[in-house]
Amino acid sequence: MNLPDTVRTVRWMIRDTFRQSIATKLFYVMITLVAVLTLLCASIRVTGDVAPMAYDWEVPALIPKGEAERLGMDKVQNDGVRVISGEVSFGFGATKVPLGRTREDAVHFIQTWLAGWLADTAGILLALLWTAGFLPTFLEPQSVTVLLAKPGPRWSILFGKYLGVVGFVAFQATLFVGCTWLALGFATGVWSTAYWLAVPLLVLNFAVFYSVSVFLSVWTRSTVAAAFGTLLFWLLCWLVDYSHLRMVAQPNGSLSPLSQLLMDAAYWVLPKPLDLSGIFFDAMSAESVGTKPVELSIAESGGKHHPEWSVASSLAFAAAVLGLSAFEFKMTDY
Fold first, then answer.
1. Where does 24-140 have alpha helices with state H?
2. Residue 207 lies in a domain
3. Domain range holding 216?
């Protein structure tokens, strides 16, 4: 098979994946979720905020009303610190919470929560769970034999299906970030472009772990095995990642040299969800929203953590697993 035919096969498989997502209603489910979250963002209002004031000395220019009352309103006013008495409302005023600092900080908190906690963790796991059935259904003998009867390497069919699912998730991630960004922008007047960094980071995280789902699908042809096997593998990788960072950040000599060697090997071989989340945290400048795991911060400050190598090794793992999946698919007798 020549290169144009291979490209045509991959392209057709990508189109077939989107067709399959529509046939299984998954496309509409995810569109509905995006619409609900977009409506929630459009319902947000920020009132009573004040513009930040810059000082030449290290004194906070703004302070929340609750903190000012705790310190003493007269003392705060005498020090020249302005008190924020505004609020953020959700659901077109149905729920209101005090404004912590400025309007920009409030929007940044919401964006980080949406992209970091909701999409990067719960969203990735749900995407892995919902897309787990794409390949087992496709690999059923009555479905795949039609394609295998045509000339072409099997790896291009499998790789096209993988790219199709990753492309589908990338489309949904772009739609989610784009719609919520527009809704928050029109509702609050704050347009933060850093929010768009969530799209490539979310797609990268999903692409790495979906390779495991592909391998389990080819090996077992079971949706249940692909779904829950991938989720368990994600949990294993998170535990290995955290344990290695803890070992690096807080060496106490309790582990034997062999145990440390095995931990290092497992860390560098397996994907690193905690490291990828740390990259996302830094890209979003989320220090004002929350804190990274202490172990990760210590490892970074000590020069013992290298995000670029975390990404490279995770992608290398995904490539190796896809290669094994293609080999297994090639050797399967239909």
1. 26-42, 65-71, 73-78, 103-112, 124-130, 134-138
2. yes
3. 3-45+101-331
Residue range 133-162, pLDDT digits in tens: 888 877 766 565 445 545 567 788 888 889
Instruction: Please state the domain count of the chain.
Output: 1
Confidence (pTM):
0.82
The confidence score (pLDDT) of residue 55 equals 45
Burial class (CB in 10 A: 0-12, 13-18, 19+), 205: buried
Nearest residue to 163 via CA among 122, 139, 134:
134
Please enumerate in sequence order all residues whose Cβ is within 8 A of that of 10, keeping only pairs 6 or more positions apart, or say none.
Answer: 156, 159, 160, 163
Collect all residues with Cβ–Cβ distance below 8 Å to 185 and sequence separation of at least 6: 191
Q: CA-CA distance, 171 to 34, in Å (whole number)?
A: 12
Please indicate, yes or no, if residue 56 is contained in any of the structural domains: no
Name the phi and psi angles at 64, rounded to 5. Answer: -65, 155
| Crossing angle between the packed helical segments 198-220 and 307-331, to the nearest 10 degrees | 30
Contacts with 39 (C-beta within 8 Å, 6 or more apart), sequence order: 183
Residue 92 lies in a domain: no
Residue 325 pLDDT exceeds 70: yes
* Tens digit of each residue's pLDDT (9 = 90 or more) over 62-79: 555 555 555 555 555 555
pLDDT tens readout for residues 296-306: 777 766 677 77
CB 330 within 8 A of CB 154: yes
Please, are residues 159 and 10 in contact by the beta-carbon 8 Å criterion? Answer: yes
